[in-house]
Amino acid sequence: MEVFIGREEYPTMELVDTGSETNIIQEETEIKALLTSRKLIMNLRGIGQHTKSLVGLSESTAITMITGEEKEIHLFIAKGAIHTILGRPFLKDNNFKFEFLHKKGEILSYPEEN
Questions:
Q1: Is 76 exposed, middle or buried (0-12, 13-18, 19+ CB in 10 A)?
Q2: Which candidate among 22, 68, 81, 98 keeps its CA 20 to 30 Å from the CA of 50?
Q3: Of residues 107, 109, 88, the one with CA closest to residue 99
Q4: What's the pLDDT tens digit per position in 15-25?
């Protein structure tokens, strides 16, 4: 899903991961999107038991959906190559629904803002 991150609306493709407990972007994307973050050092262990270094947290980061709707999310900043991930916090906070329809496949839907 394409979204635009930050007030400068840096374009990026996001991986929507219903199993992820975090929202993650790589450090390079944080720099290009001119995000403000606070330093945070910790390791994140993935489902395959690999680890990734987290180096920061960007709080209340503006993202703009392809529809033009703006949301705010918290993003962990990862060092090195990693897919940008929108996980369960993003899905839950914004009432997104992810369902499988036999004839259509996977559908991601969300309510429109009034």
A1: buried
A2: 98
A3: 107
A4: 888 888 899 99
Residue 86 bridge partners (DSSP): 16
- Closest to 8 (Cα-Cα) out of 44, 45, 35, 41: 35
Confidence of residue 35 (pLDDT cuts 50, 70, 90): very high
The domain spans of the chain are 2-109
Contact 89, 19 (CB under 8 A): no
The one-character DSSP state at 79 is S
- Kindly tell me the burial class for residue 65, based on how many C-beta atoms sit within 10 Å of its own C-beta (0-12, 13-18, 19 or more): middle
Count of beta carbons in the 10 Å neighbourhood of residue 59: 12
Tokens of 35: 């995000």
Between CA 41 and CA 36 the distance in angstroms is 16
CA–CA separation, 30 vs 10, rounded Å? 9
Homologous superfamily, domain 2-109: Acid Proteases (2.40.70.10)
Residue 42 pairs in a beta bridge with 54
